[in-house]
Write a structure and sequence with these properties.
The chain is α/β, with parallel strands linked by helices. The protein has 2 domains: 10-219 and 345-405, Rossmann fold (3-Layer(aba) Sandwich), CATH 3.40.50; 248-329, formyl-coa transferase, domain 3, CATH 3.30.1540.10. Helices cover 37% and strands 14% of the residues. It is built from 16 helices and 11 strands. A 6-stranded parallel beta sheet has the order 3-2-1-4-5-6, with helices on both faces. Helix 6 (179-201) packs across helix 7 (213-220). The two termini are 35 Å apart.
Length: 409
């Protein structure tokens, strides 16, 4: 097996819920050793975020639900009560020998326990210490807690997402999945990798990285927000319509729904030919993209009428042959059954103690020389406590038993 990109990197992961754990998982996929710290008895709060749960072989309640499983593979779970001095000492001892310390506690919480950046830096000067929060380490909202949906709302994403004004159900709408958490997880990984590179290649020092969900969602608005910065006007909600080119949107066919993206004038001419309406491509109102945007409701209505006349399969074939980007609106069953998705291997299977063949979503990165081939199941709560304390800190069985007795682990 090839050496993984992050082989030899050691990470102490005190993050919980989704954004931080997703980053830890990404780094673990890439070969880093990730030790996840969880609360004794309860674990990561994500474990209590509702069903479905895996089925315990003995029918007992457990804490291995889908929310936790999606973000915690390729990690070791160690239970530590950081509210106890003995637990704090365990964290400090582990922190001495790692490259990265990740946490997503509210600003100032870990300082009470002597586990903040300045405290950890004293015992490990080269540490890359990454704090993931809702609002960042500075600013009037820094002490606040928050979740993905709050940042979709406050960051402006919901204001440009949803049905158009005047349509049934119009108004701000949340994106389905916790997309801000996922993007923040990616930013966290980029920040950590950049700091590791700087430390190694540029002979740089360790440093504190501040990543937050509000900054992430604002930055993600990209061209939508740039429109506002250019003309001072917020783009309206457009439903599935595009804001840069038209026709673009979901169209109903005779037996299903099609997402069609006509990205330039050449594609528009070919789309019109495929629809057997070539005259549209020479109509002065539609020849250029800016013309189509100016007459958006009219061209979208024309395309809607034409597409309704035949089946989804018919139009997929027609547009594919014409070189016009389109795709079916798939549910999850249809998506995983798609031959391209099957070929790309987006579903991976791991052995879990409660499920011999547990399906997970593979890492989206593909490497030619260092492929990600090892996917270890998300750990049971505290599964590696004994192993890590014995091997990393040389604690004997008596000491570990004493720590359990006083509730430190």
């Amino acid at each position: 097996m090839s050496i993984m990109p992050l082989s030899g990197i050691k990470i102490l992961d005190l993050t919980r819920v989704l954004a931080g754990p997703l980053s830890g998982q990404m780094l673990g996929d890439l070969g880093a050793e990730v030790i996840k710290i969880e609360r004794p008895g309860a674990g990561d709060e994500a474990r209590a975020f509702g069903p479905p749960y895996l089925t315990d072989p003995e029918g007992r309640e457990n804490s291995n639900n889908s929310f936790y499983l999606c973000a915690n593979r390729n990690k070791k779970s160690v239970t530590v009560n950081i509210a106890k001095p003995e637990g704090q000492e365990i964290i400090r001892q582990l922190a001495k020998d790692v490259d990265v310390f990740m946490e997503n506690y509210k600003v100032g919480d870990l300082k009470r326990y002597g586990l903040d950046y300045e405290s950890i830096k004293k015992i490990n000067p080269g540490i890359i210490y990454c704090s993931v929060t809702g609002f960042g380490q500075t600013g009037p909202y820094a002490p606040r807690a928050g979740y993905d949906a709050i940042f979709q709302a406050m960051g402006g994403l919901m204001s440009v997402t949803g049905h158009m004004d005047g349509e049934p159900g119009a108004g701000p709408m949340k994106v389905g999945p916790s997309i801000v958490d996922y993007m923040t997880g990616m930013n966290t990984s980029i920040g950590i990798l950049s700091a590791l590179y700087h430390r190694k290649v540029n002979n740089g020092a360790g440093q504190h990285i501040d990543v937050c969900l509000l900054d992430t969602v604002i930055a993600s608005l990209s061209h939508y927000l740039q429109i506002y910065l250019v003309n001072g006007k917020s783009p309206p909600r457009r439903g599935t319509w595009g804001n840069g080119s038209l026709p673009l949107g979901v169209f109903r066919c005779a037996d299903g729904e099609l997402m069609l993206v006509v990205g330039n004038d050449g594609q528009f001419a070919r789309a019109c030919a495929a629809l057997e309406a070539p005259e549209l491509a020479t109509n002065p109102k539609f020849v250029k993209n800016n013309d189509r945007v100016a007459n958006g409701k009219e061209i979208m209505a024309i395309f809607a009428d034409l597409l309704l006349k035949n089946t989804l399969a018919h139009w997929l074939d027609k547009f594919e042959k014409a070189g016009v980007p389109c795709g079916p609106v798939n549910d999850f069953d249809q998506m995983f059954a798609d031959p391209h998705v099957v070929e790309r291997g987006m579903r991976v299977t791991v052995k879990h103690k409660f499920a011999p063949e547990l399906s997970l979503i593979r890492n989206a990165l593909t490497f030619s020389e260092t492929p990600i081939t090892e996917y270890r199941a998300p750990p049971l709560l505290g599964e590696h406590t004994q192993e890590v304390l014995a091997n990393k800190l040389a604690y004997d069985e008596t000491k570990i038993a004493q720590l359990k007795q006083i509730g430190a682990i």
